[in-house]
Amino acid sequence: MLKSPPMSNLTVRILSAIFALLILFFSYYLFDLNGILAFGLIVVSIGAWEYSQICLKPFYKSSQISFLFVGSCIALLGLFSFPSLSALTFFAATVCLFLTLSLWLSRERIKTDALHRLLSMAVTGFIYCTLFPSFAFRILLSDQGIQLFMLLLVMVFAGDVFAYFTGRLFGQHRLMPALSPKKTVEGAIGGAIGSVACSMIYIHLVDIDFSLPYWGIGLTAFITSATAQTGDLFESLLKRVAGVKDSGGIMPGHGGVLDRLDGVYFGAPVFYACLHIIIGELRLPSAIIDKMTF
Predict the structure, then answer these.
(1) Long-range contacts of 166-170 (CB under 8 A, 24+ apart)
(2) CB 159 within 8 Å of CB 195
(3) d(CA 26, CA 50)
(4) Helix-strand-coil percent breakdown of the chain, rounded to 5?
(5) How many of the other CB atoms lie within 10 Å of CB of 46?
(6) Please, where are the H alpha helices in the chain?
(7) CA dist 175 to 1, 50, 242, Å?
(8) Three-state SS letters, 46-82
């Protein structure tokens, strides 16, 4: 009996991405914005767990610190997702509590040098796994958040796709071989240009009430794409130090959540800041404002 040939890695990546997009679509179709927010919370929580496994567990084998880290990340994500003057206060309090509990849980069970690295990587993780992606939630919660969130995804993923194919066709100069041997300068430039082009097409096709000039969107797309590609390099750095190939295996062909969304994590704060400069302010819908107390 003849065996069917295995699917290529590119085919697996495409099918996996389509499946993830279908989940996102049905989350919105069935539960509106709340569905996307819930799906996003699950995804970011998985990303926090992946981070704990590759960056924290090597220093302390017990899962206590990992669970404590993920729980702290979930709390901070909800805090950062709403603009509030109290965010800095509760961030400091949460980090202090995490450091306190971690020190007590690991006492006499871990060497001093390893403990220092563990706590340093945890604080970095709070920024990477909660503060950065919280801006994607802020975008979703803003007026016309779905359209703007999709624009962010277009900028990041179009840049990713164009960088991949441009690099394969024209790549000659390695971008940062110590972290990612296959990435090239030509690919990075092609990714940024592709991001700008696809963003322009998206703005032309989608009706957004905000005043978004084409030059502003082009500049935002270029900066966001460049930052998103840097996010990929940053995640490669984490994996290189940890000695792992992927952050996880939840997405066949892609790896883990951090492998797929590292660009969104890095791109979201820059995208949000650029829109603030262009628009002046990202407004929350009145229905959400009425339910909030700061």
Answers:
(1) 166/190, 166/191, 166/194
(2) yes
(3) 25
(4) 75, 5, 20
(5) 18
(6) 9-51, 64-80, 87-105, 112-126, 132-141, 145-170, 185-205, 214-242, 257-279, 286-291
(7) 46, 26, 21
(8) HHHHHHHHHHHCCCCCCCHHHHHHHHHHHHHHHHHCC
Structure tokens belonging to residue 140: 């979703």
Block residue for tokens 């997009």: 21
Query: Which conformational region is residue 243 in: left (phi greater than 0), alpha (psi within -120 to 50 degrees), or beta?
Result: left
CA neighbor of 114 nearest in space, from 53, 61, 50: 61
**What distance in Å separates the CA atoms of residue 76 and residue 58, rounded to the nearest whole number?**
24
CB half-sphere exposure, 111, CA atoms < 13 A: 5
Chain length of the chain: 294
Q: Mind listing the pLDDT tens digit of every residue in the chain (294 residues)?
A: 444 444 555 676 677 778 878 888 888 888 898 999 999 999 999 999 999 999 998 888 778 899 999 999 999 998 888 766 577 888 889 899 999 999 888 776 778 888 889 999 999 999 999 999 999 999 999 888 899 999 999 999 999 999 989 998 987 889 888 888 888 999 999 999 999 999 999 988 887 766 778 888 999 999 999 999 999 999 999 998 888 888 887 877 678 899 889 999 999 999 999 988 887 766 656 555 444 443
pLDDT at 72 (0 to 100): 94
d(C-alpha 228, C-alpha 242), whole Å: 21
Q: Is 106 helix (H, G, I), strand (E, B) or coil?
A: coil
Residue with tokens 């995640």: 235
Contacts of 189 (CB under 8 A, 6+ apart): 166
